[in-house]
Design brief:
This protein is of the alpha/beta class. The protein is built from 16 helices and 9 strands. It has a 7-stranded mixed beta sheet, with helices on both faces. It has a two-stranded antiparallel sheet with strand order 1-2. Helix 3 packs across helix 4 and helix 9 runs parallel beside helix 11.
């Protein structure tokens, strides 16, 4: 005798329907956020009192009909306020703080990931079925610019006060003169900032992207810093000599093809008494511990669509963005570090590991 189908819990269906509507609304807002960011509309609104769509479009140099429709999405999404009597739109300063300006609090920069990640969906789905991954080259040149734009406000605000400042006496030692390497330096902005701030120290930036390094060298020249060099280098082959007093890696280790080997090479390249500063995404290695994390879904999405798949594409470990504190600490110990200190949430999204 066939079993009767289990009756659905209608309250659960209703609750999940509401959640799905919320997800689709969020995805729609994220898409429109990126449109508004590229069109300069958030910056325009932040600088204006309540205004009509015509006035906003004129100030932004955009077509009014498109601006009016975009504003409809922003009002329905709760980003922009609307006065129906006056037919004016307003971006409150409390909202503008997170939508405009060159600061780390501007969250529209996160929406820049979605167009880039969306274009590799067929490749990622193929990897789901066949294994392997999507190579780093598939994201270029856009990914370099995306990460550069995302990181600059953070380095300006936190590099000296939070990252380097987290280690007692490090700033003073840098002022006196240290030999410093940055692993996975990308366009080299943080290295150039350090070189400018600490002229008695010598800096080397390592990255495998020659395109990114050319931008780093050009900016070093523009900033007038002569105590920095940039070297095209697979950091999995980092030599034990010369040795450095300080090695840094900002958001770089979890993407590596052989992260354990990179950490071991870093350990060997440290001079006696040297320190390794590793900034990486704040997360646990256990999924259940990440459920309450802000942007946890975003972290796993970026991991699936970029960080993990890029590593797997090259036969790597595929740690993913949420490799987590537990695994990171274990891997640092396996690489030979015996003194590991954590500064959790040194900025809103990252933990700083200080390893000796």
């Amino acid at each position: 005798m066939a079993e009767e189908p289990r009756r659905l819990d209608e309250a659960k269906v209703k609750a999940f329907t509401q959640r799905m509507v919320s997800h689709l609304t969020g995805a729609s807002v994220a898409l429109m956020m990126e449109v508004g960011r590229q069109a300069g509309l958030f910056e325009t609104l932040a600088a204006m009192p309540p205004a009509t769509s015509t006035a906003i479009a004129e100030r932004a140099g955009c077509t009014e009909r498109y601006v009016r429709e975009w504003l409809g999405a922003m009002v329905c999404g709760g980003l922009v306020e609307y006065d129906p009597a006056a037919r004016t739109y307003h971006l409150p300063p409390e909202h503008a703080l997170l939508l405009a300006g060159q600061t780390s609090r501007n969250l529209t920069s996160l929406a820049t990931f979605f167009p880039l990640l969306g274009r590799v969906i067929p490749d990622v789905v193929r990897a789901f079925r066949e294994g392997g991954g999507v190579p780093y080259a598939a994201y270029q040149p856009d990914f370099t610019s995306l990460m550069d734009g995302r990181s600059r406000p953070r380095y300006r605000e936190f590099l000296f006060s939070k990252y380097l400042g987290a280690v007692d006496g490090l700033t003073q030692r840098l002022e006196a003169g240290l030999r410093v390497a940055d692993v996975g330096c990308g366009t080299g902005f943080c290295v150039n900032l350090m070189a400018q701030r600490f002229p008695k120290s010598a800096f080397v930036g390592y990255d495998f992207s020659e395109t990114a390094l050319e931008r780093a060298r050009a900016e070093a020249r523009a900033m007038g810093v002569g105590n920095v060099t940039f070297v095209a280098q697979d950091v999995a082959q980092l030599a034990a000599e010369p040795q450095f007093d300080l090695i840094t890696a900002f958001d770089a280790i979890h993407d590596q093809v052989p992260p354990g080997e990179v950490l071991r090479r870093i350990r060997q390249a440290l001079a006696p008494g040297g320190a390794f500063l590793m900034l990486d995404v704040h997360a646990s290695s256990r999924l259940e511990q990440n459920l309450a994390l802000p942007l946890s879904t975003f972290i796993y999405t970026v991991s699936t669509m970029h960080c993990m798949t890029v590593s797997l594409a090259h036969g790597g470990a595929g740690l993913g963005t949420a490799w987590g504190i537990e695994l990171a600490t274990r891997m640092l110990r396996e690489a030979g570090f015996t003194d590991i200190q954590l500064v959790e949430r040194v900025d809103p999204m990252n933990t700083l590991y200080v390893a000796r």
